[in-house]
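Quarterly update from the structural biology core.
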Amino acid sequence: MTVARAVTCPSCGGSIEIRAAGYTVTLACRHCGSVLDVAHEDVRLITAYKRASANFAIELGSRGTLLDIEWEAIGALERRSPGAIWQEYLLFNPYAGYRWLVLADGEWQFGTLLLDRPEGSLSSVKWRGQTYTLDDSSEIETTIVLGEFYWRVARGDSVQCKTFARGSSYLSSEASGTEVTWTQLVPIDRRDVEGPFVVRQRYKPRPDLRAIREGYSTAPGMDENDLPMMFLVALGALFIIGILQNLLSGPSQCVSNRFDVVVGAADTTHKIGTIDVKRPWQFVTIKADTDKFDNRWVDLDYSLVDRRTQQSIDAYGIVEYYAGTDSDGPWTEGSHHGETLFARVPRGSYDVYVDAGSHGWPSDPRPDTLDPKNPWSAPSTVSVWLAACTGGYSWGMFWTFAVLLFGVPCLILWWRHQD
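Predicted structure, tokenized:
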């Protein structure tokens, strides 16, 4: 074997050995993954990037004897096509040249670059008197580069590949621009590889999310440029759902009432009015507004009493507002407005009642908080305005539909942009 030459990576400063000195053109730094042009006198940086953990099966620099020739693994590629991912290892011997070891689906193949090219049509080729038929045609992309190579190679390179088969032997054609290379691939026993070479026994191929995504993208409606259309369809569907919800919520009939609630006193019952639900079922919305107050709340227990059966449908509402000052400064919490939605109220005529009670925080007013100069002064009260209407809009349902409609394209968008 030839004597290795050492160079320093201009990207990370790491020391790298060139094993095929005089032959190697491109070298990928095993420390940071930067791609270097070692044919340049000063070792020029071609591409700098942080290499993801590759977990390659064969350790670069390991040597082994295959077909009675000692080879050294000097380069490694991870490549993918739609739905598949595999690894290719460049072997070097200064007298025999270069060969390939390919690991796909746990099976090994030994590759030899062809000098005498096959001849034939699109569906079959003939090489050395034997006919090979087309087995597969796809675009192949290089996803990880590690080690040294005799041609310009970088992450993201893609070629058009055609594979022709004859039994267990294959001829692979890779075309990039006007350049076409042919390789013969023959199966090789796993023990013949894992014996002489240093192979990680617990090697497991990393999941190729991009290959999976690309496999999905070949399905109908899942092309590369489909995401804008998917978002437009989701937006249109959500718009239609909003219109339908609004139409199905009517017709609307409203009743209202105003009353005062004494803070700290017993709950009082008030009738808001009578409403008629004219559809088989409808929403009923009750909106509550109060005058301005601090550090109090108003409990509102609503009842829709069917005038025919005297059965009631009950719901709870609250209006609360708090304010104060602490070490971070003034703060407020709550609102002087509340809204309660009854879902699926059956058809019928309903009397709307409310049991209202108000309380203070941290405690209800005490008798000694009344005006001492006026013992007949009234206790503190809260004015409440209530409006009950048939119909109403379920924003919870609307946003649920929004999440469901936009969730799929957002997930695909995230998926496609993962490394």
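The chain has three domains: 5-207, 227-248+400-416, 251-391.
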